[in-house]
C-alpha cells in the first residue's frame, strides 16, 4: 500500500471542512474562463467544485480521477491541472466547459501540483515513487526527479529555475534546468503548508508538528528563521502583494498573520466559525480570505478589517486544495528582508515521512 505523505486525518470520524479561498489586491483582476471563480478539490467525492467568489455559491462539480488533491490553474486562466492521488493520473480541465479534456498517466500517487510562470511545465509530488514529476503541458510527457524522501507539497519560483518540495524535516531544492536536487534545507517538523512569494525571494512552510513557520531565503536557499506559531500551524497563504503570510492554527481555532518584512506574527484572529481550520487561499482581487474548518464550515475573512463572516458554501467531502484565477496585472512585490451539539474532538493530524 502506498505510503501517504500525511496520514490523512480527513478519514477520521467527522465530515470534513470545506476549503478556503482568498482574494487579491484591487489593482489585480482575474482572467480567462476562471474569472470570478474558485476551484476546490473534494478528494472524497472525486470531483473539483466550482465556486462563484462574488456570491459565495456553488456552480458545478467536475468529475476527475480518484482522490483529487492538488490543483493549479494555467496563467491564461483557461486550464486547470489536478493531481489524483489514488488514481495515479493528472486530470487536465477545460475551464470554459468545466470538463476534463485530457488525462495523463504514468504517475504514482501524484498529490500536489505547481506550474512555471509560462504554464509550459507542471510539477507534481509523487508519493509512490518519492519523486518530483516534471511534465510538458503541451505533450503530457513526464520525467521524474528522485528526491530520497516521501514528498508532499511543491512550489516553483517565477523564473522556472527552481522548485521547493516539502518532506519530513526537509525542503528539497530541485534545479529545474538540470532536473536534480541541488540542495536540501533542514527545518523543524513536518511542513504541511508551503508557499513562495511572487518575486521568488522567500519560501514559507507551516510545520505543524513543531509549532513553527520556517522562513527560507529562496535566493541563497538557506533558512532565515523559524517563527513560533502555537497550536499546530497547518496551512499558509501568502497575500497577493507578498506583504503577509496567513497561517491557520489547526488546534488553536485561530488565523495568524506574519509580516514578510519582519518575519514575526503581527496579528491573531480567533476563528470560532471554523473549528480546527486547516486550509486557506486568496482570490484575485485580494478582498476575501476563505477559512475552512474540520466539520465543514466555511468563513470569509476581510483582510482589511480582520472580520470573519460565515458562508453556506459546500466544499464537498475531504477538500484538499483551493485555487482562484491568476492575476492579469501582478501586484508589485513588497521588498522583504534576507453547530448544534458539541462535536467530539477529532484526533490531531498524524504525520508520516
Question: Could you please describe the fold and organization of this structure?
Answer:
- The chain has 353 residues and is mainly beta.
- The chain has one domain: 7 Propeller (Methylamine Dehydrogenase, Chain H).
- It is built from no helices and 29 strands.
- The strands form eight sheets. It has a four-stranded antiparallel beta sheet, with no helix packed on it. A four-stranded antiparallel beta sheet has the order 5-6-7-8, with no helix packed on it. A four-stranded antiparallel beta sheet has the order 9-10-11-12, with no helix packed on it.
In terms of per-residue confidence, which ranges show pLDDT below 50 for 5 or more consecutive residues?
1-28, 329-353
Instruction: Please name the CATH architecture.
Output: 7 Propeller
Structural category: mainly beta
End-to-end distance, in Å? 15 Å
Write down the CATH topology: Methylamine Dehydrogenase, Chain H
Order of helices and strands: EEEEEEEEEEEEEEEEEEEEEEEEEEEEE
Q: Categorize the overall geometry.
A: globular
Q: How many helices?
A: 0
- Oligomeric grouping of the chains: single chain
The name of the CATH superfamily reads YVTN repeat-like/Quinoprotein amine dehydrogenase
The beta-strand count equals 29
Can you give the helix content as a percent range? under 10%
